[in-house]
C-alpha cells in the first residue's frame, strides 16, 4: 500500500436541503510521483461532490480534498445513518485502489400535503369526496382525519380514520358527508366544511371543501303541484254546482195521449161509450233519452265485424344498435388488409368520452384544448400480445404493481373513466415481440418524443412522475 488516508470527521450530520463538508487527507507513501482520482460511492453519492477531483502528490507529501454532502429536502433523502465511501484510483498503480468509508446521518423532517378530489360535491342525501394525503417528508407519518363545519349542518364518515404513510407515498381517505336536515322544497344550499389532518406535536393541516345540498323537489315543481291541486278542487266544485239535468220525453208523450182520449164537451150522452164498453186505451210510445240506442241484433259474420283484427302489431321494430368500435375492432381490420405488426388505440377524453380508434402513429386525444386523457384502449397485431399500466396525476398507479396483459387482437384498457379519478399522466408499455414507440403530448410541455422500448422490455412514457405530475393530452404509438 503506497497511500495513507484519513476522513475528518469520520461521521457527520446534515439537514435535508442544506449541506455539510468532510475533509479527506491523502499521503503518498510510495517512492514515485502519483496522481489520484476521487469518486464518491454509496447511496449518498448523487448528492456528494469532491473538490478537487484529482490530486497529484510527490512521494512523502500530503494533500487534502473536501467532500460536500447536500441531500435534497425530499423523501429520497432517507432519515437516519447512511454509510458512504470514496474510491481513490492511483494513476501509476491502478490496481492499488483505496476506499475510505464514513457515515453521514441525515436528520428527519416531515411535510404533509392534502387535497380534496373533487373539492366540491353535490347531492340530496350525501356526498362522497376523496382526500389524498401525500407524505413529502423523509420519515413515516401517522395521522388522523376528522371533519367539521360551521353550524353543525353535516355528519362525517371517514374511512380509514387513521393512516400511516411511508416517505414519498400517498394515502387516500374515503369520506361520506350526510346533511342533518333534508331540503324537501327550495333551491340548493352550499355547506362549506373542513377536513383536518392531525399529527402529534404539530398544527393540523386543514383542507376546505364545499357540499352543495340540493332540494328533494325543485321549487317550480312544488308550485306546479299547488296550482294543479287548486284547479282540481275548483273543477270538482263547479261540476257539483252545475251538474247537467237529464230528463226524458216519455212523461210528456203520456200526457198528450191522455188529452187525446178525453171526451169533447159537445158530445151527447148517447154518443159516449158506456163504462162497460170503454174503448181500449192506446199505450203511449215512450222515447229513449237522447244519447241511448237499443242494442242491434247480431248481424252475422259479415265484413262489418273487426276490420283490424288481422293486422297484428302495427308498431315499427327497433333497429339494433351497432357494436362499439374498439381498438381491437380496428386492429383486426388493419391486419386483414396488411401483414406485419400493427397497433390501434383510442383515448377517453374528459368531457368528450371515447374517441374513434386510430392506428399506427395517428394522433389520439386533443392538443391545445386543455382536455386530459382519462383512459386508453390499446390492441396490437403481430406482436404476440401487449402489457401495460396507467399512472394518474393524483393516485399514481391505480393497480399498484398489477399490469394489464392481453394477447393479439384483444382490447387492453389503461386508466379509469370514473369522474372521481384524476387524469392520466403517463403509462408503461411492453410488447412480447418487437418494440413499441409511443410519443406523448403533456400539458405545458408539448410532445416529449421519448423513444422506443428495448425488445421484450418495458418503458415509461409521459409526464415526469417525480417533479412535473402533468396531465396527458394526446398520444401517437407505433410498433
From TrEMBL:
Biased composition (Basic and acidic residues): 294-306
Source species, domain of life: Bacteria
Biased composition (Low complexity): 280-293
Keyword DNA-binding in annotation: no
InterPro entries according to UniProt: ChW
Transmembrane intervals: 220-242
GO MF terms held by the record: hydrolase activity
Keyword Membrane: yes
UniProt source species: Streptomyces anthocyanicus
Name the UniProt record assigns to this protein: Hydrolase
Keywords assigned by UniProt, alphabetized: Hydrolase, Membrane, Transmembrane, Transmembrane helix
Region (Disordered): 254-328
Biased composition (Polar residues): 265-277
Amino acid at each position: 500500500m503506497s497511500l495513507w488516508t484519513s476522513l475528518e470527521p469520520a461521521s457527520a450530520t446534515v439537514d435535508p436541503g442544506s449541506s455539510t463538508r468532510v475533509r479527506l487527507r491523502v499521503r503518498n507513501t510510495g517512492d514515485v510521483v502519483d496522481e489520484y482520482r476521487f469518486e464518491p460511492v454509496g447511496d449518498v453519492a448523487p448528492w456528494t461532490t469532491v473538490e478537487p477531483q484529482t490530486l497529484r502528490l510527490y512521494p512523502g507529501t500530503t494533500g487534502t480534498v473536501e467532500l460536500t454532502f447536500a441531500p435534497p429536502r425530499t423523501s429520497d433523502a432517507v432519515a437516519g445513518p447512511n454509510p458512504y465511501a470514496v474510491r481513490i484510483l492511483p494513476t501509476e498503480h491502478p490496481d492499488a485502489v483505496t476506499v475510505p468509508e464514513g457515515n453521514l446521518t441525515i436528520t428527519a423532517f416531515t411535510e404533509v400535503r392534502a387535497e380534496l378530489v373533487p373539492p366540491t360535491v353535490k347531492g340530496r342525501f350525501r356526498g362522497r369526496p376523496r382526500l389524498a394525503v401525500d407524505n413529502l417528508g423523509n420519515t413515516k407519518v401517522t395521522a388522523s382525519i376528522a371533519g367539521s363545519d360551521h353550524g353543525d349542518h353535516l355528519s362525517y364518515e371517514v374511512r380509514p380514520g387513521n393512516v400511516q404513510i411511508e416517505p414519498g407515498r400517498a394515502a387516500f381517505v374515503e369520506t361520506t358527508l350526510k346533511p342533518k336536515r333534508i331540503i324537501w322544497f327550495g333551491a340548493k344550499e352550499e355547506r362549506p366544511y373542513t377536513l383536518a389532518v392531525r399529527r402529534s406535536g404539530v398544527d393540523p393541516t386543514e383542507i376546505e371543501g364545499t357540499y352543495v345540498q340540493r332540494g328533494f323537489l325543485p321549487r317550480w315543481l312544488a308550485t306546479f303541484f299547488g296550482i294543479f291541486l287548486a284547479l282540481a278542487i275548483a273543477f270538482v266544485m263547479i261540476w257539483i254546482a252545475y251538474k247537467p239535468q237529464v230528463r226524458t220525453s216519455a212523461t210528456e208523450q203520456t200526457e198528450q195521449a191522455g188529452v187525446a182520449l178525453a171526451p169533447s164537451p159537445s158530445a151527447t150522452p148517447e154518443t159516449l161509450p158506456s163504462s162497460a164498453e170503454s174503448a181500449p186505451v192506446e199505450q203511449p210510445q215512450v222515447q229513449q233519452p237522447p244519447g241511448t240506442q237499443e242494442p242491434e241484433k247480431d248481424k252475422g259474420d259479415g265484413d262489418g265485424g273487426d276490420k283490424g283484427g288481422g293486422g297484428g302489431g302495427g308498431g315499427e321494430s327497433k333497429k339494433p344498435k351497432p357494436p362499439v368500435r374498439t381498438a381491437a375492432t380496428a386492429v383486426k381490420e388493419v391486419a386483414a388488409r396488411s401483414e406485419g405488426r400493427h397497433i390501434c388505440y383510442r383515448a377517453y377524453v374528459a368531457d368528450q368520452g371515447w374517441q374513434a380508434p386510430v392506428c399506427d402513429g395517428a394522433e389520439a386525444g386533443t392538443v391545445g384544448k386543455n382536455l386530459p386523457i382519462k383512459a386508453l384502449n390499446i390492441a396490437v397485431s403481430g406482436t404476440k400480445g401487449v402489457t401495460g399500466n396507467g399512472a394518474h396525476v393524483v393516485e399514481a398507479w391505480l393497480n399498484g404493481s398489477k399490469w394489464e396483459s392481453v394477447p393479439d387482437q384483444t382490447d387492453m384498457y389503461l386508466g379509469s373513466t370514473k369522474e372521481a379519478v384524476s387524469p392520466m399522466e403517463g403509462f408503461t408499455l411492453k410488447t412480447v415481440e418487437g418494440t413499441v414507440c409511443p410519443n406523448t403530448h403533456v400539458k405545458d410541455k408539448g410532445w416529449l418524443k421519448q423513444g422506443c422500448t428495448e425488445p421484450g422490455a418495458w418503458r415509461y412514457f409521459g409526464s415526469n412522475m417525480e417533479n412535473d405530475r402533468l396531465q396527458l393530452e394526446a398520444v401517437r404509438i407505433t410498433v
